[in-house]
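pinning this so it doesn't scroll away 📌
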Amino acid sequence: MRPATMGDMPMNTMVDCTTMRSQMADLLLDPATVAAEVHAHAKNCARCHKELAELQATMAALDAWEAPEPNPYFLTRFKARLSEERALEPVGLLARWVARFRAGVNYGPAKQLRPLAATASTLLLLIGSGTYLGLTNWTRPAQPQTEATVVNDLQTMDNNAQVLDQLESLSNNEDGN
């Protein structure tokens, strides 16, 4: 009876391939520390053997690579450019502060700007919500409403009745003259 297969490889080889991938770096860099089963699997499994051979070829190419020599005039040109930039520095205190801020924004890490951005967005949120809620007009005191609306309605009707009585008495006086 044949074992269950997945493609060309038996199922138990797939588990060994997973183990092999976790041991591949050790097998490549220090083969003496790797178990004999991993060595046997690397020889018997075509896919793992191919991957190990590719990694060994890559390591051999990296070992053979030599870093290029730097240009002998690099430091001379760099120092000249640096002195030119220093000569262009701003003179005044405000100009230096603006230049330092601009350089920090252009060349500095974003971590320096995060607290500033958080503070600015918080202030904008507070100002916007205060404006929306009408909290900007603090000079006008709030009118306390001590009486109920029914009482206000009765007082308004009483005042209207008094005004009507006065108008009626005035019109009677004019008719009587």
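📌 and the second one:
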Amino acid sequence: MMRTSLIRILVIVGVAATAGFIRARDLPWVTDVAALEAEEELHNTLREGVGISLEGMLELVDQGAVVIDARSREEYEEGHLLLRCDPAVLNVPGDEIDKHVTRLMDLQGLPVVLYCTSYICDYAEDLYITLEEFGFTDIWIYFPGWEGIVEAGLETTTGPDTWTGYYDEPYDDEANTPSEVEP
């Protein structure tokens, strides 16, 4: 009985880690405590300094801010914030940031609002750090994320992110690599 339970736990943790539901710092056998504490301190600092309220996010959108959904492509396509502007809400999955650098460079100088699933999702924070490394300066995070958007009753839509940038060439995931643009 105990052996079966242990196997079930290992399978669940393995599937969750593979699917991205948990990260290494969530696992009890990760021993680099100093690195984990430094990462946690960075995340706390970000939350205190760059968090924005729903009202603040909507005000920035009215002023021309770009909104980026940092959730997975599948989650984005199932539902995301509806904005009637160009570009509409972009999708830059937190684990695919490097694939999107080229198209995001066109947005430098504009205010950017990021969101993920909820307070417990770190992808928006990871994206914040990357955008900052590439010279973006006016970046905000709506920490309640998708859950906060739905709870607030904001208008949403479904479907893929089709914005290719302010250039004429079609967007190509494979050609858009970090080797083309360096911070």
